[in-house]
Amino acid sequence: MAEAAAPTAAQAGIAVGTCSWTDPALVRSGWYPPGRRDAEGRLRHYAEQFPVVEVDSSYYALPQLRNSERWTERTPPGFRFDVKAFSLLTGHPTPAAALPADLRSAYARARGRGGGRGGAPMDPALLDEVWRRFAAALRPLRETGRIGSVLLQFPPRFAPGAAARTALEDARKRAAEWPVSVEFRHPDWWSADHHRETEALLRDLDAAAVAVDTAQGLPTSMPPAAPVTARHAVVRFHGRSPSWGTGGKEDAYRHTYTDAELAEWLPRLRAMADRAERVHVLFNNCCADAAVRAAEAMRRLLDEGEDGGEGEGEDGGRGHPGRVPG
């Protein structure tokens, strides 16, 4: 009897994609074919190549209902969007102009009292309203089964401690109706002293721990921890630039992954897929077409079933290319 073929990445529950489909550098790279370079054509073409994408523009401004409707119309059933939470919702510096006009006065008053600065609490009523509008705009994606998760990416100053735990619990309550993924940028969350506690906290919150690939050996390096703390799991590949955490966008994310670098993650990804219902693998090395090429390479390696290395057991793009949330 012939040996059964190894399952493809999709069959194994692993979906590979990128952290944007309209990043200006990608659009300029020529990856999109002629005739498919307008807003509709780009998304339709991307969705023919990959089953998942991250919406990054929602970090810079609240998403719009009409865009969610268009994204639903332009993608096939089964396609998934991971949506990054608006910057204000995760304690990042947020300019007043990024909020709807009718909320700016309340925001200015809150900032005048110190809210939102250096981790100071923001007005709960304002956060409730921003969360309400964020969720309402994504309703078409939810109703058509196209939401992968809402990504809560916290800033580097968000260190482990009682205040951070309270903020994380508060954010999870406000996002109770959504699957949630959490990415930390402070290395202590996954240090030997805090790893077990962090994993338990996210499991209690039913939030997926976002595993990351970044350059190692830097003060801002995040360890490649890959625990599974919810029914879904997410891995974000940021590249391995030595300017990670310090340089501008072009420097911090400039990296072309080799097959050997990607193969380091194959055992981890398969281990995650054994424990989670679905794993989203997203590439954020957003210079030219580097992210889509890395995603294609990762999918090929997964489908080949060869480890090749060792490891532990109307816009969805970047609204402000000069800023680097990642």
TrEMBL record:
Ranges of Acidic residues composition bias in the record: 304-314
Gene3D superfamilies on file: Protein of unknown function UPF0759 (3.20.20.410)
Coiled-coil residue spans: none
Residues annotated as signal peptide: none
Ranges where the record places region Disordered: 304-326
Pfam families per UniProt: DUF72 (PF01904)
Protein name listed in UniProt: DUF72 domain-containing protein
Organism for this UniProt entry: Streptomyces lichenis
